[in-house]
Write a structure and sequence with these properties.
Layout: H1 2-32, E1 37-41, E2 47-52, E3 57-62, H2 70-100
Antiparallel strand pairs: 1-2, 2-3
Helix pairs in contact: 1-2
């Protein structure tokens, strides 16, 4: 029974160490994501949108051609923004899995 108790303490120490690593990695993750950029273009590449890893629109580029059709332009902007945000979210989820070692830990407010 004594060995079992020490075995459990060893496991607990390992878990505490892992938790500390994850905590440090999460801090790094939160610092890195806003500096990352993700771009997407609408079909036909008339609109290109770039967003940051913290889901802020950084730039919107519109071709002269796209300006001729307001309704089409609005739709293309929507498509490009959603595609760029989806790319940022996917990258954030992959990075989160990397950081937590696949433990499925979620950061409130990130997604």
């Amino acid at each position: 029974m004594g060995n079992n108790m020490f075995g459990n303490l060893g496991e607990l120490a390992k878990m505490m160490s892992k938790a500390k690593d994850i905590q440090g990695n999460l801090k790094k993750f939160k610092e890195e994501m806003p500096t990352m950029e993700f771009s997407a273009a609408s079909p036909g590449c008339q609109v290109k949108v770039t967003v940051s890893g913290d889901f802020r629109v950084k730039s919107v580029e519109v071709s002269d051609e796209a300006l001729q059709d307001r309704a089409g332009l609005e739709e293309q902007i929507t498509v490009a923004v959603n595609a760029a945000l989806a790319a940022a979210k996917t990258a954030a989820q992959e990075k989160m899995n990397e950081v937590t070692g696949g433990l499925g830990v979620d950061l409130p407010g990130i997604f």
